[in-house]
Design a protein that fits this description.
Strand content: 5-15%
Order of helices and strands: EEHHHEEH
Radius of gyration: 15 Å
Strand order of the largest sheet: 1-2
Amino acid sequence: MERRARVSSKAGRGAGVASIKSTEKAFAVLEAFGGQDRLLSLGELARLSRLDKSTVQRVTRTLLGLGYMEQDPASRRYGLGLRVLDLSFALLRAHPL
């Protein structure tokens, strides 16, 4: 079954380019960690990513399962997982700085 990519309506984020909404949402959650805080609550992730809390919960569950996010068992706050670092190393190996 073939799926069509949706066109993003967000200016500056794939405007006019075919995109997959769930991928945009996942990256919005990951990009929420671009600030100073290392660990964020679900509510903070929702606010920073500008997504509703239920969407962030679904995206977070997926990213946790894939290793791109981790959850602190004591505080239940979320942080980036080691798989993000794997991607960073791959970029550094392939890109001449």
